[in-house]
Amino acid sequence: MTKEQNNSPEDFLAALAEPSPSPAAGSAAAYAAAMAAALVVKVCRITLAKNQASVALVDLSQAAAARQGDLTRLAEEDRTAVAAHFQLRKDKGGNAERLLAEMRPRFTLIPLEIGEKAAAVGELAAEARELVWSGVRDDNVAAVLLAAAAARAAASCGRRSSASAPLPVSTSRYSPSTSHPSASAKRRMAARCASMP
C-alpha cells in the first residue's frame, strides 16, 4: 500500500486485510489509539463549546491532539518498517543481513512507542472523565477503552518483535541496565495498561 492509496479508512482497512506483512497489528494499534485521542479532543471541545471554560480541558485537548499526531505518524512508520523488514528478510543477499541488523532496534521499538503513546491517551481520557459535559461521557469512556486495547495490542507486537530480535543495550532509552531493554518497557507498559480504567 502506497501513501497515496492510504487516504481513507476504507483504503487502510482493505490493506490491513490483505495477506501481506504490512500494514499489520502495530499500525492498527496506532490508529486505534489515534481514534481514542481524537475522541478526547472531541469531548473537550464540545464541553468547552458549552461555555464550560476550563484551562485543564484546553490542556487535555492540546495534549490529546499532539498524541493523535504522534500516533498517526507512528502508524505509517510501523507500516514502512514492517514492509522493509520483511522485504530484507526475503532478499537474504548482499547487504540484507547488515541492513536488518541496523534497522532491528527501531523496528522493535516502534510498537513499544505506540503502546506508550496509547497508554498516555488513556490517561488523558481518564483525566477528562470528571471534567467533560455529561452528554459526551460515553464518548470519553470509549476513548479510555480504545486506548487501553491499543496499548495492549502494541505491547503484544513489541513482545513478538523483541523475542525475535534482542536489542543491544545502547539502542534503547527504555532500560539501560539490561541486555533486553524492551522487556522492562513492556513490563512498565503492561502495568500502565492494568491500571487504566
Which helices and strands, and how do they pair?
Layout: H1 9-17, H2 25-49, H3 55-91, H4 96-128, H5 137-164, H6 181-195
Helix pairs in contact: 2-3, 2-4, 2-5, 3-4, 4-5, 4-6, 5-6
Number of helices: 6
Strand fraction equals under 5%
- Radius of gyration equals 18 Å
Count of beta strands: 0
Helix content percent band:
over 70%
Reading the helices and strands in chain order gives HHHHHH
Largest sheet properties: none
| Mean pLDDT over the residues | 81
Which of globular, elongated, flat, extended, rod-shaped describes the shape? elongated
State the gist of this model.
The chain has 197 residues and is mainly alpha-helical.
Q: What can you see in these coordinates?
A:
- The structure is a single chain.
- Residues 1-5 and 162-182 have low confidence and may be disordered.
- This protein has helices at 9-17, 25-49, 55-91, 96-128, 137-164, 181-195.
- It is mostly helical and 197 residues long.
- It is built from six helices and no strands.
